[in-house]
Specification:
Blueprint: H1 5-9, H2 16-21, H3 26-45, E1 54-61, H4 78-85, E2 88-94, H5 100-109, H6 113-116, H7 135-141, E3 145-150, E4 201-204, H8 212-229, E5 234-243, E6 247-250, H9 251-254, H10 290-320, E7 327-333, E8 338-339, E9 345-346, H11 352-355, E10 356-362, E11 370-377, H12 381-388, H13 403-407, E12 417-423, E13 434-440, E14 444-451, E15 457-464, H14 482-495
Parallel strand pairs: 1-5, 1-7, 2-11, 3-5, 4-6
Antiparallel strand pairs: 2-10, 7-10, 8-9, 12-13, 13-14, 14-15
């Protein structure tokens, strides 16, 4: 349909009929519109309530800080790298415990594992804290549409709970199920596995939505389109399953890497002077040669790039819908893992590779392209998002808001970051026998392994990250670090309160 002359020339927001019947000269009517707009703007600046911010909460599973934006140039992660340039990248972010259920329960409650008494996979936080208000539940209570697609809370061994219904406005989708079930689904004959299958590797020429993460993205895009039409602000949690094992991804993501150029860990042996309790039974068995290690790492990298592509699709849709300008985006991982380093596989340690996580916050009202070296923890996300969105956070939260760092990346909000791990690594609903408490300070990581019943210190560790970032030597017995040990031990006692001891 062609556009009439009157329609093409009318001021925005003024109907054609209004132009025809107006008795004011055209220039006067234009001036009136400009004045009215200016007055409305002035009134808004003078105190009108700003539009509420949406939250897009994106989680990865088992993703250590192995991304190009974190200095790992061998990784193909352009979409997450781009997100980092659109917000604040935290270079020293840590989980509370390198186990999926515990890390996620702590983040979503804003409470430490000892407070909620969750240290394993089967225990649900509401068994011990039934009245706790979770992060998405807070948003739901204050008029937000709260929705979960994919893995947010722990996704298996909790048949009774299957997530947390109280946290969401609608039932969770694609949330519950063991990772081993994420096998490629296609119509017709399944293409062959081009990997050896060792180390849980699987390489097939299939589309993205043959795997959970591709279908999670499809469902999240549909949800965004619906949410964009609604009047209520939203808290949309999208939980990707990658790069958690099995290391399976469509072939095109494997093709992004040349296997011979994939780095092999430099330190395949445990750190010197390491107490046995600091290690796990998930050992690198020594039978794997460099070829097998590279294939396993190749699959892991393919899974990361697959994840990155899904993040790109999600952010692209957010842009296409015009929602980016009023949406906070958070990207995080629950913990890291080992791929042969220290002679270990998987997680459940306090080493940097398990405890350090990527964390990016992109807020429309804060500067972009920032990097912060401040020590932060995942449980800090709860008070941060509450403050950013103007919601009253529960008073018992054990994290602190990161908003000062979003305003100025040189700010610090805490002196140390605490990570812990029990022994055995999966207590299976019982109190642990021992607990390893580990604090990160600007230069050091200090750890104490305590009898969980008595509090007696059984072993200690100290790593000098300035001179040994790979944590290859426990220097707790080196006299030149004695003053640092004294100071860090006092800080650890301050962080680990008496309330962390078992309840009678």
């Amino acid at each position: 349909m062609s556009t009439s002359r009157n329609e093409a020339s009318r001021p925005p927001g003024v109907a054609i009929g209004e132009m025809r019947t107006s008795k004011l000269p055209f220039a006067v009517s234009q001036l009136a519109i400009v004045v009215a707009f200016a007055l409305a703007t002035t009134l808004n600046l003078a105190g009108a309530e700003p539009a509420p911010l949406n939250v897009l909460f994106i989680a990865a599973d088992d993703l250590r800080a192995e991304l190009a934006c974190y200095g790992q140039s061998h990784v193909v992660s352009p979409n997450i790298d781009r997100l980092a340039k659109q917000g604040t990248q935290f270079n020293r972010a840590y989980c509370q415990q390198a186990v999926c259920n515990v890390s996620r329960a702590s983040l979503f409650t804003g409470l430490r594992p000892d407070t909620i008494r969750v240290w394993d996979l089967p225990t649900h936080f509401r068994q011990n804290k039934p009245e706790v208000v979770t992060l998405p539940q807070l948003f739901k209570q204050h008029g937000y549409h709260s929705q979960c697609i994919g893995k947010m809370f722990h996704n298996w061994r909790q048949e009774k709970w299957k997530g947390d219904r109280a946290s969401w406005s609608v039932p969770s989708a694609m949330h519950y199920g063991a990772h081993g079930r994420d096998k490629p689904m296609v119509e017709g004959k399944l293409p062959p596995n081009l990997a050896s299958g060792k180390g849980g590797t699987d390489c097939r020429a299939v589309p993205d939505n043959a795997y959970y993460d591709g279908r999670i993205t499809d469902a999240s895009i549909v949800a965004l389109r619906e949410l964009g039409k609604g009047k209520a602000p939203f808290f949309l949690a999208v939980g990707f399953w990658k790069p958690h094992t099995p290391f399976n991804a469509p072939k095109k993501y494997w093709d992004l890497y040349q296997r011979e150029k994939i780095p092999v860990p430099k330190h395949l042996q445990p750190p010197t002077n390491i107490p046995g309790i600091a290690m796990t039974e998930y050992r690198f068995d020594g039978r794997k040669n460099a070829t097998e290690l590279r294939e396993m790492h190749h699959g892991h990298l393919a899974a990361i790039s697959f994840l990155d592509a899904q993040v790109g699709r999600l952010l692209g849709e957010l842009d296409a819908l015009g929602l980016r300008r009023n949406t906070i985006i958070v990207f995080w991982s629950d913990h890291g893992l080992h791929l042969g380093e220290h002679g270990l596989l998987r997680k459940t340690t306090n080493f940097e590779l398990d405890a350090a996580v990527p964390l990016i916050i992109s807020s429309p009202h804060h500067p972009k392209a920032q990097q912060s070296d401040a020590l932060v923890e995942l449980l800090d996300l709860y008070p941060t998002l509450a403050e950013l969105c103007g919601l009253p956070a529960p008073k018992d939260l054990e994290g602190v808001s990161l908003v000062p760092i979003l305003k100025d990346p040189h700010q610090t909000v805490k002196q140390v970051a605490l990570t812990q791990i029990p022994r055995p690594p999966y207590p299976r609903g019982k109190d642990p026998e021992a607990m390893g408490y580990s604090i990160r300070a600007p230069r050091y990581r200090y750890a104490e392994w305590r009898d969980f019943k008595t509090g007696e210190v059984k072993a200690r560790e100290l790593y000098d990250h300035d001179n040994d970032p790979g944590e290859t030597a426990n220097v707790i017995d080196d006299a030149k670090h004695a003053e640092a040990v004294r100071r860090l031990a006092a800080q650890l006692r301050e962080v680990v309160k008496e309330g962390a001891r078992p309840l009678n």
